[in-house]
Every structure is written in C-alpha cells, then in structure tokens.
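Quick one, probably user error.
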C-alpha cells in the first residue's frame, strides 16, 4: 500500500463538545498521521464553496448554516491508503448504521451532526486539501 493523504473536518458539533482530541486520537490510532491542522470558523463563502456539489440538494442551506455554527478543525491526514482508512474509522454517515468503535458511532449526535467529514476519493482529497491549505502549511 502507498502512503497517501486525505482531508478531514472535525465538525462544529464535535468542537462544541470539546472532542477534537478524542477524534484526533481515533484517527491516529487507526494509523493516520496529522500533517496539517487548523481550527477555523467557516465563512458562508467557504461553506458554500466547499459543499457546492450539494447546492441543488434540499439539505444544502441547513448544511451551510451548520458548518458556520461554530469552529471546525480542518486537517490533512497521511497514511497507507489514507482515504479508505479515514472512511473506515469515521463509520457510516448515519451514526445508527455505523460500526461500533467508529467516530460516528461513538461520538456523533445525529446524521446531520455526525462529527466528521472525510474525502471520498484521492481526487477529492487533493481538491479539498487545496481548498483549505497552502502546500507550505502541510508539514509531513
């Protein structure tokens, strides 16, 4: 397996409950290394731009509002097959369907407030990383 990178967001529901460290610990225990991280408050423009693929979906405005509702932690993660590894440790989008021991099963509040976002492909990871980070901010 090749060492690759993926993108992660610790969402407002998790930062509000002071779970940044707990989420990061679960990511690291899954074999991922944080090579860039920053706590930000998403602007409307950032939230709309980042989630633009969902613009026509009925939940888009609620998603944008939620992502602006508090601080988030954006991260670049590195590890063997990082996208898959991250998605495995995140668990299913709906926490009710997530496997025990996953971030969403253990920490999420609901399908909407599910604590984390992770890239779904290497291509999207590259795009999402570039959306929030300059190359010199990634110090792997």
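Nope, works fine. Designed sequence:
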């Amino acid at each position: 397996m090749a060492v690759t990178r993926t993108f992660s967001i610790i969402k407002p529901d998790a930062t509000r409950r002071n779970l940044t460290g707990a989420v990061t610990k679960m990511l690291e225990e899954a074999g991922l290394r944080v090579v860039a991280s920053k706590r930000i408050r998403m602007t409307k423009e950032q939230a709309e731009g980042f989630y633009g693929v969902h613009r026509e979906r009925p939940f888009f405005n609620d998603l944008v509002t939620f992502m602006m509702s508090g601080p988030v932690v954006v991260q670049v993660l590195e590890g063997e097959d990082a996208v898959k590894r991250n998605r495995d440790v995140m668990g299913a989008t709906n926490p009710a369907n997530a496997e025990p021991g996953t971030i969403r099963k253990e920490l999420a509040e609901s399908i909407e407030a599910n604590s984390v976002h992770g890239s779904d492909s290497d291509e999207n990871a590259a795009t999402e990383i570039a959306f929030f980070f300059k190359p010199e901010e990634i110090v792997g």
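The two ends are 18 Å apart (CA to CA).
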